[in-house]
Structure formats: structure tokens, C-alpha cells
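Is this the right way to post C-alpha cells for a design question? Let me know if I should format differently. Anyway, here goes:
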């Protein structure tokens, strides 16, 4: 299975509708198309993390609520109101939004040591601090959903 296959699958689309219902404050643009440029970037992320699309499919099937909770915590922690200090404009999420979060979730679950390496390879600024923050969110998610 490729990432494009996953994004087009009925299972993933069902996951998005359920995630949309779970994230009450995050608007979703369900009719957004699969964007080849974004797919290539996300495939690069998956390569850095050594994660295949099949693993993402298994995750959204087996740990749906835990993944929802992790994504919700990250959005709450890193979103700001439109025009906030960084002058960000919050656009509706598309089908591509969960992929980066799901990659991180799998790394935190299966390869914590690989998380920092992944963040450096993907050029996340403040990678060490960010890794610590999301690891705490992951632990909180696991403690509250199991």
C-alpha cells in the first residue's frame, strides 16, 4: 500500500470523519483533493521514520481513540487564535493533516530513540524540546485512554 492508496481508502476517509467529530474546534475540508506535492513530502517523512503506509492503516484501525487524543492535544498546544503573536491564519484541516501526527505517534510508541533523529532529519526547529513536549503528550494520551 502506498500513502496515496491510504489517503484514498474508505478506511482512512472514515477515520477523518470520526476525527472531525472528535475535534470539535478544528474545521475540516473533507472535499480537499490528494495533493501530490504534499504526498511526496509526507513520504519523505515516512522514509525518515522508517514507517510504511500499512503501519499507519493499522494504527488508525487499532488505536483510533488514542490517536485522536494525541492529535487533539497537539492541536490545542500548538494552535493560536487567528492573528495571534505569530500572525498565523488557521485554515481548515485537510486529509493530509493527520499523517505527520500519526508518524510521530508511531515513533513515540515504537521507537522513542528514533524520534529526535526523525525531528532533526525533518528539520523541526527546537527538536529536542519539541520531542520532550510531544513525548509527554503521548504519555498523557496513553494514560488517559487505556
Amino acid at each position: 500500500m502506498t500513502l496515496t492508496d491510504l489517503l484514498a481508502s474508505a478506511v482512512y476517509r472514515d477515520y477523518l470523519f470520526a476525527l472531525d467529530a472528535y475535534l470539535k474546534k478544528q474545521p475540516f475540508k473533507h472535499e480537499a483533493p490528494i495533493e501530490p506535492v504534499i504526498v511526496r513530502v509526507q513520504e519523505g517523512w515516512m522514509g525518515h521514520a522508517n514507517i510504511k503506509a500499512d503501519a499507519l492503516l493499522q494504527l488508525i484501525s487499532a488505536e483510533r481513540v488514542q490517536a485522536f487524543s494525541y492529535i487533539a492535544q497537539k492541536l490545542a498546544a500548538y494552535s493560536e487564535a487567528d492573528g495571534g503573536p505569530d500572525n498565523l491564519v488557521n485554515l481548515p484541516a485537510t486529509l493530509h493533516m493527520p499523517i505527520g501526527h500519526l508518524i510521530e505517534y508511531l515513533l513515540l510508541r515504537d521507537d522513542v530513540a528514533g524520534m529526535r533523529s526523525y525531528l532533526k532529519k525533518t528539520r523541526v526547529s527546537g527538536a529536542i524540546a519539541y520531542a520532550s513536549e510531544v513525548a509527554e503528550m503521548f504519555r498523557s494520551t496513553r494514560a488517559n485512554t487505556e
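Format looks fine. Someone answered above. Worth noting: Residues 3-145 form one domain. DSSP finds eight helices and no strands in the chain.
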